Amino acid sequence: MSSLPPLSPEQLVKPRHFELRMGLIFFMLFVPLGIHLPYFPLWLQAEGFDAEQIAVILAAPMFLRVVTTPLLTALADRASDRAHVYVALVAASVAASAGYFLTPTYAMVLTVSLALTVVWTPHSPIADSLALSGVRRFGSNYASMRKWGSISYLCANLAGGFILSATGAQAVPMIIFVAFGAALVVGLIAPRLGRPRRASPLSAADIQQSAPKLLNAYFLYFSIGVGVITASHAFFYGFVSIYWKSIGIGDQVVGLLWGWGVVAEIGMFMVFTRVFGSFSVVSIMLMAGIGAIVRWIAFPMIWPLGLGIAGFFAVQTLHAVSVALVLIGLQKMIGETVAEERTGAAQGIAYFSNGFFTAVVTLMSGPLYDRFGVDGFFAMVPIALIGLALIGLAARSAPQRRIGR
Question: CA 160, CA 171: separation in Å to the nearest integer?
Fold first, then answer.
């Protein structure tokens, strides 16, 4: 017996061009991130901030968003339609990002970054929850929709590198502002699906059996393990562009290097179902953690061994394993074990874990880069190992049955 009631007549109707519209949402959603992640640290450095200040500006919003994101994603679950909340948050992001046009003092940039993260971070989990409702209700393919986010991230990486090579890092705030504006326009076509389905009035025993609570050992170990593996990328995200520039690599090549990692990610999205579809989520995450460890061991050795830019491209290929498998594996776990009415909350908890641990490691990364430079990557290896150990604990408490569509 299922704990979910039948779909209402309105919910049975698939919105026109659902997959296309969600693909467009994901495409525009990731353009601001494709500029912010690789190039925002370069803008901060160009404005005269040192490595520790950059680490604080990057990490402080992460600590804040681990509190605010679960609250806003849970609010979206209770709203008349999650799409309305999504549009409102994108509009607020446009307004907040305009704050970077003000005089870029340390206090001002930190304040704007804190405000922006509150309204920006929920975009992705809310879009994910809409897409997963389509997976359950209409049999849509999550990876085929989500891959457009990776494609747009790639385009933003490449375009940003070319723009910055012509204008310098001062253009970063304007590009981010324009990207949010475009995301707002596209957000207006987000599919309206109504509320998520609520649990039917079954007995407590039935509900407990078929829709397990989120706060169980499997979900918690898995979510924390994913968060720790993701956090091992914090040093890379915060300082790799600065490192590449310090050894004489130009903005265009920096953009290409970031973009190549995303090409590998897109490739994984394209082949995942065919190659890894039958693997358990625990196996998928173990592969991701091992890929991260190999990546952080190899990265500091590229330039000293004379492998040059080609070596960096080779290591960036591991992005397909250490990042793409994490993204897909997390959604696969939620889709298999979390009832639809708890999807938004599950996304929020997962983002809480990712954000909190990434914030901690990002804060550590400033002093690490100041003292050790690129060798700071070696400190990411034990972090990834801890993530792997948590995934192993999750495997020991895995549920025996899945939640159906």
Answer: 9
